[in-house]
């Protein structure tokens, strides 16, 4: 009894799975098993509220207070119901560059991800979101080096100006 208890404690556990052997055709030739393709996933846009300061989940794209102040000021100057579209495109020193522009809210696409900050919406297409998920957008009004800055955890390389990056997804 002691021997069987000891071997069960120290020996690796194996799980036996049924094995299906390849089928052979009437001519005796090997015929590979038929694999079924999984159904494609459907992707739906969701509105993601920004995580509270004490929240445990970080938003897909986070912005600093400086960004919100500056964007709200720019939006009020245009006197329109605008949202900010953030994305990426091929180009720039490092291979991909950030895109950012105001857009009328009615132009949002059905597959866009929407991140809300205190009534301000940031929209991003699903392809771009793969490259910038977890990014933090900051703004500085400094005379040298001021403007928007992108802190992207997915960037494996960035250029000197900080407006383009390389990423492996």
Write the layout of secondary structure elements.
Layout: H1 2-10, E1 23-24, E2 30-31, E3 47-49, E4 61-63, H2 65-78, E5 82-90, E6 96-104, E7 113-117, E8 120-124, H3 126-132, E9 135-140, E10 147-151, E11 155-158, E12 164-167
Parallel strand pairs: 3-7, 4-9, 5-8
Antiparallel strand pairs: 1-2, 5-6, 6-12, 7-8, 9-10, 11-12
Organism: Glycine max (Soybean)
GO molecular function: iron-sulfur cluster binding; protein-macromolecule adaptor activity
Protein name: Core domain-containing protein
Give an overview in words.
The chain is an alpha/beta fold and 169 residues long. It has one domain: Sandwich (Hypothetical Protein Aq_1857, Chain: A). Helix content is 18%, strand content 34%. It has helices at 2-10, 65-78, 126-132, and strands at residues 23-24, 30-31, 47-49, 61-63, 82-90, 96-104, 113-117, 120-124, 135-140, 147-151, 155-158, 164-167. The protein is globular, with a radius of gyration of 26 Å. Residues 1-17 and 41-49 have low confidence and may be disordered. InterPro entries: ATAP (IPR016092), ATAP_core_dom (IPR000361), FeS_cluster_insertion_CS (IPR017870), HesB-like_dom_sf (IPR035903), IscA_plant_cyanobact (IPR031108). Belongs to the HesB/IscA family. Ycf83 subfamily. It comes from Glycine max (Soybean). GO terms for molecular function: iron-sulfur cluster binding; protein-macromolecule adaptor activity.
């Amino acid at each position: 009894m002691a021997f069987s208890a000891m071997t069960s404690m120290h020996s690796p556990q194996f799980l036996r799975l049924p094995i299906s052997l390849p089928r052979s055709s009437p001519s005796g030739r090997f015929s590979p098993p038929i694999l079924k393709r999984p159904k494609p996933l459907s992707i739906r846009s969701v509105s993601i509220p920004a995580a509270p300061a004490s929240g445990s989940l970080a938003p897909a794209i986070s912005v600093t207070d400086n960004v919100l102040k500056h964007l709200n000021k720019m939006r009020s100057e245009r006197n329109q119901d605008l949202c900010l579209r953030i994305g990426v495109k091929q180009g720039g020193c490092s291979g991909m560059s950030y895109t950012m522009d105001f857009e009328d809210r009615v132009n949002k696409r059905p597959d866009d991800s929407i991140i809300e900050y205190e009534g301000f919406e940031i929209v991003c297409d699903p392809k771009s979101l793969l490259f910038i998920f977890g990014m933090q957008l900051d703004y500085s009004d400094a005379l040298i080096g001021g403007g928007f800055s992108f802190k992207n955890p997915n960037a494996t390389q960035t250029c000197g100006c900080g407006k383009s990056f390389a990423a492996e997804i």
